[in-house]
Amino acid sequence: MQEEQEFIKKLLNPKTQNQAFKELLLDYQRPLYNHIRNIVLNHDDADDVLQNTFAKVFQYLKNFKGESKLFSWMYRIATNEALTFLNQKAKINGISSEELQNKTIDNLQADVFFDGNEIQLKLQKAIAILPEKQQLVFKMKYFEELKYEEISEILGTSVGALKASYHHAVKKIEAFVTAN
Amino acid sequence: MKAFKLENEPKIESGFKTPDHYFDHLSAKILEQLPKNEPKVISIFQKRRMVIMMVAALLILALMIPIYTSISTNSKELDETTLENYLAYQSNLNQYDLISELETEDITKMQPVSTPEDKVIEDILTTNSDVEQLLFE
C-alpha cells in the first residue's frame, strides 16, 4: 500500500509522470486487454476500448483519491468503457445489446483472432443468455481468475452477493450446455 | 445425455488471440496519443503581431479624420442666411436691379400663395369696429 502511494506520487509528478505511466501501461495492458476482450469479444473493439481506457486513466489520474486501489480503479474504468462502447455500438446498429452480443458470437467462428473449439464457442453462447452482471462476474472469476475480493472492489458488490451470482451463472451455463 | 459440469471439465480458455507483437507496440502507441501536459506557449511574435494590428487600425482611423473634415467643410452650397446677409449689406444690388433681372413669369409666381376668402374678410369687418367707422366716413 505504501509502495502504491509512492507510485501514485510519481504518476502525478510532471517530472516522473511519463516513466511512471509507462510502467503502469506495461503492468496493466495485458490483464486489462483480456478483461475488455472478454466483454466486447472482438480484437479491434478491444483495442479501441483499451486505448480509451488508458486515455481516461491518464486524464483522471489527478482526481484519483487513493480511496480504492489503483488496480480496481483501472478495472472499473475499463469495465465502464467496455459496457458504454457496447451500448453505443448497439445503438448505432439499431439493435439491442443482446442481439449485438449474439451477432458478435456468430461472427467469432470466422474471426482470425479466435481459435476456440466447439465447447469454447458453446460456452460463449451460454454466457450470452446471462444477465449483464452475472456475465461480468462469471468472466472475471472463470476466465480472468480474479479473487472474489478483487471483483468486489471493482464492481462494488459484496463478496457474498458475488458468490451467489457466480453460482447462479454456473448453473445456467451448465443447463444451457447440457441442453444444446 | 450426461449433464455438463464446469468443475468436472478441464479449464476452458476463452480462445481469444491477439495479432502477433500486439503488446510490443501498444504502450508506445498509447503514450503517443496522450495529451501533452506542457503549459501552453504563446510566442512573442504572436503577441507583437496583435499589437501591430491594433496600431495599424488606429493609424488608419487617424488618417481618415482629415478626409472626413474636408468632406464636411468643402461643401459648395452656401447657406441661406449668409446669402441673405450678403445681398442685404454687402452688395450694391437694389430692388430695382433685382426686378429688372426677373421675368414676368417669375413675378407672377411670386403672388401670395393664398388669397383671403370673402368670409374671412367679412369676419374681420364685423369684429373690427374701427374699420366699420372708416367705411361710414
Brief overview:
The complex is a heterodimer of chains A (180) and B (137). Chain A has 180 residues and is mainly α.
Tell me about this structure.
The complex is a heterodimer of chains A (180) and B (137). Chain A has helices spanning 2-12, 17-40, 43-60, 70-93, 97-108, 118-128, 132-143, 148-155, 159-179. Chain A has 180 residues and is an all-alpha fold. Chain A starts with a helix and ends with a helix. The N and C termini of chain B lie far apart (152 Å).
**What class do helices, strands and sheet pairing of chain A give?**
mainly alpha
Percent range for β-strand residues of chain A: under 5%
Count helical runs of chain A.
Answer: 9
**Greatest contact between two chains:** A-B, 38 and 26 residues
Taken in chain order, the helices and strands of chain B follow as HHHHHHH
Write the element-wise H/E pattern of chain A from the N-terminal end onward.
Answer: HHHHHHHHH
Taking the sheet with the most strands of chain B, its summary is: none
Number of helices of chain B: 7
| Shape summary of chain B | elongated
The major pleated sheet of chain A works out as:
none
Category by helix and strand content of chain B? mainly alpha
Mean pLDDT over the residues of chain A: 89
Radius of gyration of chain A: 18 Å
Name the poorly predicted regions of chain B. Answer: none
Low-pLDDT residue intervals, each spanning 5 or more residues of chain A: none
Please estimate the helix content of chain A.
over 70%
- The count of DSSP E runs of length 2 or more, i.e. the number of strands of chain A, is 0
| Gap from first CA to last CA of chain A | 47 Å
Instruction: Return the average pLDDT of chain B rounded to an integer.
Output: 78
Tell me the β content of chain B: under 5%
